[in-house]
Specification:
It contains ten helices and 14 strands. With 411 residues, the protein is of the alpha+beta class. The chain has two domains: 119 residues; 206 residues, hypothetical protein PF0899 fold (2-Layer Sandwich), CATH 3.30.2320.
């Protein structure tokens, strides 16, 4: 097969791929966007597989374009007339024709030849080129914008992940309140006695504790068209709604007032230990808080929650010689203090630490996180809208408040 025939076939193949891409974009055009799910030309896969197929077509276009350019250069090098493409997307003018410059066309024109033959008898001549016009520069603003299919990636809005809530014990309840008995008096009189003396009398009392289950939830409106046309939108909303509830529970774990409908958070819990750091170093103040939990709650603390900025000051502590105490900057420093796990958070006020034995509490769930969708809200049915709602019911149960301590004034 000759070079000219190769060039014809490669041009036809390139033009066929170009036409396929143009047809796909035209079929998928939605306003100023492109929805690749609207075509069957890319197969029956999901958005990501269709994007991959479009990339493959683009790669093929580039490859065929490079082959055509190489063949054109070979034709020129061999001083062959460039062939006209047959059966493809041919240019209106023959490819082997040479468009002459305005100067060449001027000197070869009959008007100029007549003028030259007249010699000095001719005073002037006029030659107009009717096919000469100014052309608009083909650029992005005045021509085709390069095709850009949207990827399937969705970047979520930045949000602080749940931390302490993920680590605490979880339980369940089938009642509207979590009710249990707690011993509130334990006086031990056990002692040695003389042969005829009486044994000492001990005392034990209990009280019933009831923690009310609260309802936590939120919702978002959405049109039926969005749910129909964007397959992944409901999944994305489900994730945001579920995560939003968990983020709220993480916040309430520290800050809840305990006044219905608010859950009871640890920092406002009655009966916990409290310590002001004053001029103490953060590490020293927290150790004293640990001691209070051991002394008054007879508990062994297993987690320390610290505001993220306060934890930063701990991580940056140095010796007098300028050496980092919590580890070299090239390494991840230990997320522990006094051998106990540290949980940095920005959901607790700066200057505050909350620590204790979290085996002495739990989150009791009455209803797990559920996501529901309905068109029964307001006039949503006739308006073609839906309400998507996520909710849960649960309660924080603090079984032994003295096993926890709030440290303020941390710096």
């Amino acid at each position: 097969m000759g070079i000219k025939q190769d060039l014809i076939e490669k041009r036809n193949e390139r033009d066929a791929v170009n036409k396929k891409v143009a047809d796909i974009i035209a079929e998928c055009k939605v306003g100023n966007d492109v929805d690749l799910m609207k075509t069957k030309a890319l197969g029956d896969g999901d958005v990501q597989s269709r994007i991959t197929e479009m990339r493959n077509l683009k790669t093929k276009m580039d490859s065929l374009g490079a082959e055509v350019d190489n063949l054109v250069e070979a034709v020129k090098a061999l001083d062959l007339p460039e062939p006209e493409t047959k059966g493809g997307m041919a240019h209106p003018e023959a490819r082997d024709s040479v468009k002459k410059s305005m100067g060449a066309r001027f000197v070869e024109s009959p008007e100029f030849k007549a003028f030259a033959q007249a010699g000095g008898n001719a005073k002037a001549m006029v030659k107009s080129f009717d096919d000469i016009e100014l052309k608009t520069l083909i650029q992005t603003s005045a021509g085709f914008a390069p095709p850009a299919g949207r990827t399937g990636e969705v970047v979520p809005y930045g949000a602080e992940p749940t931390s302490l809530f993920d680590l605490i014990p979880k339980g369940s309840t089938n009642q509207s309140a979590y009710v249990y008995m707690r011993q509130n008096l334990r006086t031990i009189a056990a002692a040695e006695k003389a042969e005829t003396a009486d044994y000492g009398e001990s005392a034990f009392t209990w009280e019933q504790i009831s923690s009310t289950v609260e309802d936590v939830g939120h919702w978002v409106p959405i049109t039926a068209v969005q749910l129909e046309d964007v397959p992944q939108i409901q999944g994305l909303i489900d994730v945001d709604l579920r995560d939003g509830i968990r983020e709220r529970l993480d916040y309430q774990l520290y800050n809840g007032s305990g006044s219905t409908p608010s859950l009871q958070g640890g920092l406002g819990l009655s009966g916990i230990n409290s310590l002001g750091a004053g001029n103490l170093m953060t590490t020293d103040a927290i150790y004293k808080g640990l001691t209070l939990c051991r002394k008054n709650g007879f508990a062994e603390p297993n987690m320390i929650a610290v505001n993220g900025e306060d934890w930063e000051s701990v991580q940056l502590m140095k010796t007098d010689e300028g050496q980092y105490i919590w580890g070299h900057p090239a390494d991840v420093g230990p997320m522990r203090m006094w051998g106990i796990r540290v949980v940095p958070t920005f959901r607790m006020a700066k200057g505050t630490a909350f620590l204790g034995d979290f085996s002495k509490m739990l989150y009791a769930e009455r209803v797990g996180i559920t996501v529901e969708i309905s068109d029964s809200h307001d006039k949503y049915f006739i308006a073609g809208k839906y309400a998507i709602r996520a909710r849960t019911r649960g309660v924080f149960v603090w079984k032994r408040p003295a096993a926890f301590c709030k440290v303020t004034g941390v710096h």
